[in-house]
TrEMBL record:
Region feature Disordered, mapped onto this chain: 1-21, 237-259
PLL-like beta propeller domain mapped to chain residues: 356-703
Highest taxon of source: Bacteria
Phylogenetic placement of the source organism: Bacteria, Bacillati, Actinomycetota, Actinomycetes, Kitasatosporales
Polar residues bias locations: 1-19
UniProt cross-references to InterPro entries, sorted A to Z: GlcNAc_PI_deacetylase-related (IPR003737), LmbE-like_dom_sf (IPR024078), PLL-like_beta-prop (IPR058502)
Entry-linked SUPFAM superfamilies: Fucose-specific lectin, LmbE-like
Protein name: PIG-L family deacetylase
Cross-referenced Pfam families: DUF8189, PIG-L
Key words, A-Z: Zinc
Length: 704
């Protein structure tokens, strides 16, 4: 919008070399920037992209389910380590799955596994250098006494590494011959088999087969984490949803090795955290279940993904006389797979993890390494105290945070606990702080709506929580159940908990949001197959009603945001399926219905929900918006100035920094908007507006 200006070094610790401002309207060069605390640094951006370790089952899992986040991490210049646990030998036939002659082809498991490695190396080389044939250095790394792996280092970009464990799913014994039975990660995780063997491939520095047990895999992964000290760990879905088209049965929707890999990754992170005290950010990605929900990548992002998959599949036009430069099973058209069109977190993130407490001070919350951490704003100085860790069992990344009008701050998390066979118990837990500054109480289980089901697998699909405190201060908690409808549980007046009961709905995404209106009414919004669904109280403390009048359009998977910009007038913000454009769907004044369609607000691509701060005492369209863009950083739109002519649309501006999950935003006690993100460096970053006008610029980032 405006040209960059010299940055005032007086706002930089130590008066360091002046930097350039990002955008005049977004970040200010004003000397009124926040004074850094003793453990903080005030910069207009942060330059540490962190270290990312990705743990997947097969060589294409990261390209299908984590990209474009993989590419962004590589482009950031940080250390990126991708760990592939299995040999991924499949049926041993490296031919297009649609090719008529493949049924008569002789399987060669080692050759097919090697071809997949070649394809993966070429795809990463293309990401990092533009040249898929850029050379690699390959070496053997002895992680533990029992586990050696192949580590591939890109010579031109040595912070990029591929770690290959080669656990086979159907090979046993010294001769590595097919056994006719499946022995691999999933059976070891379930303790059905004690061990599995590895598959040796030609040209690998690991030249002899190995036999791994359950403990070997966990210990080796924990050791790998200790070596690389990641700030972010990425893996797959430990509890995938079933195919919702089969209401009365459990039809698996994901690959069993995806699930086992995610569970091994979680166990390794837990052990690493206990042994080192370091708790990285955890990001889980949906795999095959992406096909059930509206696609969330733009055409451009999908085409980038397709380009790399073509390289991985050996379909990028490079001569391949040895027929081993890629995974030919994928064929020459990556668009034939629905995996291409979405990249979604398993635990849908929220934008409500930054809250203003009853004393006016802000508090921020996150989950790192399975534990909740929080930071508290300090009075007068603007410094932040933290992070403080709340002990307890393993908590999934998406956390519901509610600051009630009675002064209490509520946390609701999704807890996972494994039994001796590796089978998880999943429930929701609640923790509360009775007043700002006081310590939090312990976690209290509030159960699982499917806890009584005979098939224990149904309990695993408990959704991420949404919560809101009603006019009396009682907390209402919502979660998706096995039937893909919604269930609710309510806090009793004596602060005990009632029972779970279903409120209806079907084919709902696991991304609910709840809010309390200014009049004290609780409302719930959940994206479905065709539109967003709504439940609401007509008056405070009344029964919950279902509103079937919304026709918003399908919301892209990944989360929505609901705000009350005007009294009793809700606006929904979400992304348009297939374009990633930010959309607004605004209720008519005085709750008189909903419009026929949503309004497009633009934005800069990307995934995940939109952080929104309405401007007090102005119209519902005057809001501050922030979202995670296609580059993995932050995009912000400030509301128009009060005297701006007409009704200008959002003016989006990209900021630097690499962001995990979704941003949050809130008003502080002085009415200044505050942005907060958790960076891929694993740290909290906040920026505050310089005045109480929401069209004013922000001070430089404060890294806590």
């Amino acid at each position: 919008m405006s040209s960059s200006l010299p940055y005032d070094s007086s706002a930089t610790p130590g008066g360091s070399t002046p930097r350039k401002s990002l955008l005049r309207r977004v970040f200010s060069n004003s000397p009124r920037a926040l004074k850094p605390g003793p453990n903080s640094s005030a910069l207009h951006l942060w330059t540490d992209p962190g270290t990312i370790v990705q743990i997947v089952a097969h060589p294409d899992d990261d390209l299908y389910f984590i990209n474009p986040d993989v590419r962004r991490a590589v482009e950031s210049g940080g250390t990126v380590v991708t760990v592939v646990l299995t040999a991924a030998e499949s049926d041993g036939v490296n031919l297009d799955t649609g090719y008529w002659a493949r049924k008569n082809a002789k399987p060669d498991y080692a050759t097919y596994s090697r071809a997949r490695h070649n394809g993966l190396r070429r795809a990463y080389a293309r990401m990092a250098t533009g040249d898929p044939d850029s050379p690699w250095h390959r070496e053997l790394v002895q992680l533990t006494d029992n586990v050696a792996m192949e580590c591939d280092i890109l010579s031109a970009c040595q912070q990029l590494r591929l770690c290959l464990f080669q656990v086979s799913h159907s090979l046993r014994g010294e001769r590595n011959t097919p056994s006719g039975a499946v022995h691999g990660l999933s059976t070891m995780w379930r303790r059905e088999t004690a061990e599995a063997s590895t598959l040796v491939v030609a040209d690998s520095p690991v030249t002899h087969p190995q036999v791994f047990g359950h403990e070997d895999v966990t210990q080796a992964l924990a050791r790998l984490l200790e070596v690389y000290r990641p700030t972010v760990v990425r893996t797959l879905d430990p509890d995938p949803e079933h195919d919702g088209g089969h209401k009365d049965s459990h039809v698996e929707s994901d690959h069993h090795e995806h699930t086992a890999t995610a569970q091994y990754a979680l166990e390794a992170v837990r052990r690493y955290r206990e042994e080192t005290g370091i708790a990285p950010v955890l990001e889980h990605y949906r795999a095959y279940a992406n096909r059930f929900w509206a696609y969330n990548l733009s055409h451009r992002a999908a085409s980038e993904k397709a380009e790399l998959l073509n390289t991985y599949a050996g379909a990028d036009g490079v001569p391949d006389p040895g027929a081993d430069l890629g995974d030919f099973q994928l064929g020459p058209n990556p668009y034939r797979s629905t995996h291409l069109f979405s990249t979604a977190y398993r635990y849908a993130p929220t934008t409500s993890w930054l809250v203003r407490q009853s004393n006016g001070l802000l508090a921020a919350f996150a989950v790192q390494g399975g534990q909740v951490v929080h930071w508290d704003e300090q009075p007068e100085t603007g410094d932040w105290d933290g992070p403080h860790t709340l002990d307890g069992d393993w908590i999934a990344p998406s956390l519901a945070v509610v600051a009630g009008r009675d002064g209490r701050t509520h946390l609701v998390g999704l807890r996972r606990t494994n039994d001796d066979t590796g089978f998880p118990t999943v429930d929701l837990v609640h923790r509360v702080r009775n007043a700002p500054g006081e310590p939090f109480g312990g976690w209290v289980s509030i159960g699982n709506p499917d806890a009584g089901e005979e098939d224990r697998r149904r309990q695993r699909e408990l959704g991420v929580p949404a919560a809101a405190a009603d006019a009396t201060g009682r907390l209402h908690v919502f979660a998706r159940n096995f039937a893909q409808g919604m269930s609710r549980i309510i806090e009793e007046p004596d602060r005990s908990w009632g029972k779970w009961f279903g409120i209806g709905g079907d084919f709902l995404q696991d991304a609910p949001v709840a809010l309390t209106t200014a009049s004290g009414r609780v409302e719930l919004y959940v994206p479905g197959k065709q539109t967003i669904r709504r439940w609401y109280q007509a008056t405070p403390s009344s029964q919950l009603l279902r509103d079937d009048k919304l026709t918003s359009m399908p919301a892209a998977s990944g989360g929505i945001t609901a705000v009350e910009a005007e009294p009793d007038r809700i606006t929904l913000y979400f992304r348009q399926a297939g374009t990633a454009q930010v959309m607004a769907y605004r209720q008519q004044p005085q709750q008189k219905g909903w419009p026929g369609r949503s309004a497009g607000l633009g934005g800069h691509d990307g995934t995940g929900p939109i952080a929104v701060v309405p401007v007090p005492r102005r119209s519902a369209g005057d809001v501050l918006l922030a979202h995670r863009n296609a580059a993995g950083s932050l995009t912000v739109s400030l509301p128009p100035a009060p005297d701006a002519p007409g009704r200008p649309g959002p003016q989006w501006h990209d900021l630097s920094g690499s962001v995990t999950y979704a941003p949050a935003a809130a008003l502080d006690a002085a009415g200044h908007a505050v942005l907060a993100v958790i960076g891929t460096d694993g740290r909290l970053h906040v920026a505050r507006q310089t005045t109480g006008d929401l069209d004013s610029p922000f001070s430089p980032w404060l890294t806590v």
